[in-house]
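Run log // design_07
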């Protein structure tokens, strides 16, 4: 099987870090062409730093990392240090990166790559706000038709919101960008809170990471130790949702997930429900389906996969 070519667009974030590690641990199935950083969980200066820290943790310093947009398209940046800590990777003590940041802007890299590679061979994997992707589509509209698939973490339906009562964080930070992406015509698969809230890092699962006895295993365990305190208190759950790795899990083992092809629209005008993913799960409108919206996951299978792959690093 030929490895799928992907660009990871990300705002690390502990769960982003685990997603990147899962992808880098799976070279037979996934070729990471580059990592593009965007402002989100923390400001851009930290997301570009964190992306390189994770590459070095994985021993994959040949993966190019690009700095992208430092603010949403039209709004002030909202960040999530209350979840991820001041650095975005609070928990483990990890050294500052030595690998260089690429000089090219992330948006230019996305455009150039989609133009250079054969149409339908590159997947985009956004793990944060969709600012970089929307900016690329706005500057070069023809590339949307060259994307094999966009597999993104964002939105919610039954789980509604985690940053407001109605909105999930990634979509809320830049709803105008999300609107552009969902209207782009590119094939989209969505990992919303509905599925990620079923991928909980319980104590037993986190002990499994720590028991790997490697720098990667210990770092992942310490990352999830840190941010689960917020989520367990908020949701009263047995562990923290591991949101972003679901994107990479879908690429590796789609049979672990299930969902529906539905229409998803993004609310950009309402003060009350700004950033809401209006997901027509029950098919009550005649709006054309534009996304595969995932609703369930075999959590044990997912964590078995994650632990097995992290052990390779």
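design_07 sequence
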């Amino acid at each position: 099987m030929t490895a799928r070519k992907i660009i990871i667009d990300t705002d690390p974030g502990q769960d982003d870090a685990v997603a990147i590690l899962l992808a880098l641990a799976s070279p037979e199935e996934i070729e990471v062409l580059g990592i593009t950083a965007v402002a989100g969980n923390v400001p851009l200066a930290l997301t570009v730093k964190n992306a390189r820290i994770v590459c070095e943790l994985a021993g994959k310093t040949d993966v190019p990392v690009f700095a992208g947009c430092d603010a949403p398209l039209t709004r002030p940046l909202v960040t999530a240090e209350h979840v991820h800590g001041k650095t975005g990777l609070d928990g483990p003590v990890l050294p500052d990166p030595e690998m260089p940041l690429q000089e090219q802007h992330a948006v230019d890299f996305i455009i150039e790559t989609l133009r250079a590679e054969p149409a339908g061979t590159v997947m985009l994997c956004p793990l944060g706000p969709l600012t970089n992707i929307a900016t690329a589509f706005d500057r070069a509209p023809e590339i949307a038709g060259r994307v094999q698939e966009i597999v993104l973490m964002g939105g919610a339906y039954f789980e509604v919101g985690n940053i407001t009562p109605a909105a999930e964080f990634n979509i809320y930070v830049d709803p105008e960008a999300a609107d552009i992406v969902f209207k782009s015509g590119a094939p989209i698969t969505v990992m919303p809170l509905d599925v990620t809230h079923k991928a909980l890092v319980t104590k037993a699962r986190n002990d499994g990471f720590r028991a790997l006895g490697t720098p990667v295993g210990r770092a992942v365990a310490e990352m999830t130790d840190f941010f689960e305190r917020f989520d367990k208190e908020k949701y009263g759950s047995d562990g923290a949702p591991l949101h972003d790795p679901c994107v990479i899990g879908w690429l590796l083992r789609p049979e672990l997930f299930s969902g529906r092809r539905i229409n998803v629209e993004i609310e950009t005008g309402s003060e009350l429900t700004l950033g809401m993913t209006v997901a027509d799960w029950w098919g009550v409108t005649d709006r054309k389906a534009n996304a595969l919206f995932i609703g369930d996951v075999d959590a044990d299978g997912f964590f078995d996969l994650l632990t097995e792959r992290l052990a390779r690093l």
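The first strand starts at residue 4 and ends at 10.
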